[in-house]
Amino acid sequence: MECLICRGESDHNCLAFCGAVICGACEARLMEQTADEPGYEIHLQAFRLFWQKKLLALRDRHLGNGDWV
Length: 69
Ligand SMILES: [Zn+2]
What we know:
Mean pLDDT: 73
Shape: flat
Structural class: mainly alpha
Bound molecules: zinc ion
Number of domains: 1
Radius of gyration: 15 Å
Number of helices: 2
Distance between the termini: 37 Å
Oligomer: single chain
């Protein structure tokens, strides 16, 4: 799987959640970073896009289930 943030090949230390992977290097960067540092917004944007897609998928599934009732 490829890293959600840097699109690099994820290693064994990668963080995986909800079908996405963040490599050890990016995870460490995120943990160390503060909102003042350049690049933080870019990482947040990647997360926002990812969660938006997840939420939309969940909502669509919910609506789809509703149709069956
Ligand atoms: Zn990465």
